[in-house]
């Protein structure tokens, strides 16, 4: 049974989480404070429209167009806004480039900050205690959990998203992808490669 | 001076379990609903993003550790609705109130969702003074890490980075100060910097001598070195 805790009013709601959400939605909708149709619209936006395919198209374009890449690395926010990739949790974006000498990896140790307009809603592991706790202290062991091993000479820069600046990793273009157009390249760009816990897929041998 | 959410560097959490790239965005339907209710309620304009984060951080340590991600969201939302006076405890319980709420005219309609999500809420503000630090300059973070205005209040300097020597990497401009904004004390914008720290400055046994950690830190979190 829920208990009353004056410091934590949530304790008056049903403890089972699905029921807790339902109870809150019901109360708010009955008082005219939320519109169930608006909830459907928000869910549809992040389930079906805004996701890592957007970031992948940005990365593929950066691989193909040196001027675009330079502009993106210099000041990403206006470049992305011009393409329509702006909005909640993506108001200030910095793009960081992986090189043979430096690998970049993004975390939010204090909560779950993530570039929504480019990657959508973060995956469960990004929000997990294990990732939040370990990514800053032992990024190489975390990468090993993803099956990624970096060369000894590559240093890692971990970006802890402590403010409203959101970071996107520009991964290295995979070898053997020379003849591919931006569409085919985008298909190689994984979500994890834009967070820094993965690498882009290798092009299929033809 | 720390709270349970401040877990960067902590030992003992076990492996990270990756999900496939094609895993569903929301593992359960109620996860989607929890996110949507939180965003829609936020659109009523009765709190800001810093208050919202602080509400999750002030869940009891037991609840914070026990709750799944979206349980934290929905529970913190219930707490915020009462703390900010939107609902009474009785109304939250599902009491008999069914008359339109005074804030009902601020309800986020389905037709406004795309516009509201696409316009976001930028945190930068016009500069009222030049930044005190420049890229390349060495600085040290304050220690202990903690809110200097409200005891136990919201701050974005993680405890693992308190008292550490770093170097200014980028100047992001003036941004709203969470330590103030989370407590209704005003936006109090300050210069925000990306500050880079050698891993050896933060950890007793860093994995690699050249590894680094970058944090975005407000000017009042930093002292000249």
Short description:
Chain A: InterPro entries: CN_Hdrase_a/SCN_Hdrase_g_sf (IPR036648), CN_Hdrtase_a/SCN_Hdrlase_g (IPR004232), CN_Hdrtase_asu/SCN_Hdrlase_gsu (IPR023900), Nitrile_hydratase_asu (IPR018141). With about 210 residues, chain A is of the alpha/beta class.
By CATH, the topology of the largest domain in chain A is Nitrile Hydratase, Chain A
Specify the CATH class of the largest domain in chain B. Mainly Beta
Taken as a percent bin, the fraction of beta residues of chain A is 5-15%
**What is the 3D shape of chain B?**
globular
Biggest sheet features of chain B: 6 strands, antiparallel
Helical fraction of chain B equals: 25-40%
Gyration radius of chain B, in Å: 20 Å
Describe this structure in words.
The complex is a heterodimer of chains A (206) and B (225). Chain A is of the alpha/beta class. Chain A has two domains: 15-48, no CATH class; 50-195, Nitrile Hydratase, Chain A. Chain A is 41% helix and 12% strand. Chain A has a two-stranded parallel sheet with strand order 1-4. In chain A, strands 2-3 form a two-stranded parallel ribbon. In chain A, helix 3 (52-64) crosses helix 4 (66-74) and helix 4 crosses helix 5. Chain A is globular. Chain A starts with 16 loop residues before the first helix and ends in an 11-residue tail after the last helix. The model of chain A has no long low-confidence stretch (mean pLDDT 95). Chain B is an alpha+beta fold and 225 residues long. Chain B folds into two domains: 29-119, Orthogonal Bundle (Cyclin A, domain 1); 125-224, SH3 type barrels, CATH 2.30.30. Chain B is built from eight helices and six strands, in the order H-H-H-H-H-H-E-E-E-H-E-H-E-E. Chain B has helices spanning 29-42, 49-57, 61-66, 69-83, 89-92, 113-119, 178-181, 199-202, and strands at 124-125, 138-141, 165-175, 190-198, 212-218, 222-224. In chain B, strands 1, 2, 3, 4, 5 and 6 form a six-stranded antiparallel β-sheet that branches. The radius of gyration of chain B is 20 Å and the shape is globular. Chains A and B meet through helix 1, helix 2, helix 7, helix 8 and strand 3 of A and helix 1, helix 2, helix 4, helix 5 and helix 6 of B. Strand 3 of chain A pairs parallel with strand 5 (212-218) of chain B.
């Amino acid at each position: 049974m829920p208990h009353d805790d004056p410091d934590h009013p949530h304790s008056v709601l049903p403890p089972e989480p699905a029921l807790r959400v339902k109870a809150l939605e019901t109360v708010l909708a009955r008082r005219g404070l939320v519109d169930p149709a608006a909830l459907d619209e928000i869910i549809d936006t992040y389930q079906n429209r805004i996701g890592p395919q957007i970031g992948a198209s940005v990365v593929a374009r950066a691989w193909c167009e040196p001027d675009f890449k330079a502009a993106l690395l210099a000041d990403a926010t206006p470049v992305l806004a011009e393409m329509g990739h702006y909005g909640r949790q993506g108001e200030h974006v910095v793009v960081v480039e992986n090189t043979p000498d430096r690998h970049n990896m993004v975390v939010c140790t204090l909560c779950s900050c993530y570039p929504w307009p480019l990657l959508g809603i973060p995956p469960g592991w990004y929000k997990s205690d294990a990732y939040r706790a370990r990514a800053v202290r032992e990024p190489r062991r975390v990468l090993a959990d993803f099956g990624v091993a970096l060369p000894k000479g590559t240093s890692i820069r971990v970006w802890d998203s402590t403010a409203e600046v959101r970071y996107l990793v520009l991964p290295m273009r995979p070898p053997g992808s020379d003849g591919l157009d931006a569409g085919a390249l985008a298909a190689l760009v994984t979500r994890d490669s834009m967070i820094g816990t993965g690498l882009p897929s290798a092009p299929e041998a033809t | 001076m720390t709270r349970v959410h401040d877990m960067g560097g902590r030992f003992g959490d076990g492996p990270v379990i990756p999900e496939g790239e094609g895993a569903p965005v929301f593992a359960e339907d109620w996860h989607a609903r929890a996110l949507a209710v939180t965003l829609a309620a936020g659109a009523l304009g009765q709190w800001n993003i810093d208050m919202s984060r602080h509400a999750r951080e002030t869940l009891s340590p037991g609840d914070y550790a026990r709750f799944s991600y979206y349980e934290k969201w929905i529970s913190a939302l219930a707490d915020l609705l009462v703390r900010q006076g939107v609902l009474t405890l009785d109304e939250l319980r599902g009491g008999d109130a069914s008359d339109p709420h005074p804030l009902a005219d601020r309800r986020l309609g389905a037709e406004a969702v795309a516009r509201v999500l696409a316009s976001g809420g930028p945190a930068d503000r016009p500069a009222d003074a030049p930044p005190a630090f420049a890229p390349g300059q060495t600085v040290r973070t304050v220690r202990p890490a903690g809110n200097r205005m409200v005891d136990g209040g919201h701050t974005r300097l993680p405890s693992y980075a308190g008292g550490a020597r770093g170097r200014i990497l980028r100047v992001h401009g003036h941004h709203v100060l969470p330590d103030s904004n989370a407590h209704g004390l005003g936006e109090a914008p300050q210069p925000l910097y990306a500050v880079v720290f050698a891993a050896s400055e933060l950890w007793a046994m860093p994995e690699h001598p050249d590894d680094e950690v970058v944090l975005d830190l407000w000017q009042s979190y930093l002292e000249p070195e």
